[in-house]
């Protein structure tokens, strides 16, 4: 599984940003902050534009991030996948044949070790490592888990993107429009 060579996964926080992304040459997009009432419309627009959307489940206002929400999204909205910090949501997304991306905040060694246990249980399709500006950690996580890594958080420059990809990341997520090239 891959993003068909797409190394930048542009992430929209606002509807105007999402509309801009629909016009760009990306197959996969990330929907960050949105309200449940807007999501169906956004996904319909994306399908019309032949785009695949990865929804950040934890950031949808009006929807509690749990396995019932994943079931609801799968039945009603049909996104390409979800991103979540919650392993129960990742497990449910995999059962519903959605791309399941486990988001990891790696603040210290304890968080890293705890993440390895979560990954082993949930078996996500991808890991989104935050902050994504740690090439050594990207490499370590990919090797230790044998799971494809996406780098996210604090990706501010083309150099950050290049370093993450060279360290083994499949792609980077970024809400920085300057990097949606």
From TrEMBL:
Record's Pfam families? G3P_antiterm
Question: Which keywords appear in this protein's UniProt record, sorted alphabetically?
Answer: Glycerol metabolism, RNA-binding, Transcription, Transcription regulation
Which GO terms fall under molecular function for this chain's record? RNA binding; transcription antitermination factor activity, RNA binding
Q: Which Gene3D superfamilies match?
A: Aldolase class I
User: Is-annotated flag, keyword Transcription?
Assistant: yes
BP-aspect Gene Ontology terms: glycerol metabolic process; positive regulation of DNA-templated transcription
Q: Which domain of life is it from?
A: Bacteria
SUPFAM superfamilies in UniProt: GlpP-like
Q: Which residues form the signal peptide?
A: none
Function, as annotated, reads:
Regulates expression of the glpD operon. In the presence of glycerol 3-phosphate (G3P) causes antitermination of transcription of glpD at the inverted repeat of the leader region to enhance its transcription. Binds and stabilizes glpD leader mRNA.
- Output this protein's name: Glycerol uptake operon antiterminator regulatory protein
**Provenance organism:** Fictibacillus aquaticus
């Amino acid at each position: 599984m891959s993003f068909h060579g797409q190394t930048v996964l542009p992430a929209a926080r606002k509807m105007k940003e999402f509309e801009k992304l629909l016009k760009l040459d990306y197959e996969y997009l990330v929907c960050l902050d949105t309200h449940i009432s807007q999501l169906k419309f956004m996904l319909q627009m994306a399908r019309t534009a032949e785009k695949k959307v990865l929804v950040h489940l934890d950031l949808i206002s009006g929807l509690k991030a749990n396995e019932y929400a994943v079931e609801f999204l799968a039945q009603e909205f049909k996104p390409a996948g979800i991103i979540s910090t919650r392993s129960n949501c990742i497990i449910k997304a995999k059962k519903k044949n959605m791309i399941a991306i486990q988001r990891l905040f790696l603040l210290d060694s304890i968080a890293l070790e705890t993440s390895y246990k979560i990954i082993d249980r949930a078996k996500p399709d991808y890991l989104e490592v935050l902050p994504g500006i740690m090439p050594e950690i990207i490499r370590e996580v990919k090797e230790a888990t044998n799971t494809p890594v996406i780098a996210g958080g604090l990706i501010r420059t083309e150099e950050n993107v290049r370093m993450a990809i060279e360290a083994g990341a499949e792609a980077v997520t970024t809400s920085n429009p300057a990097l949606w090239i």
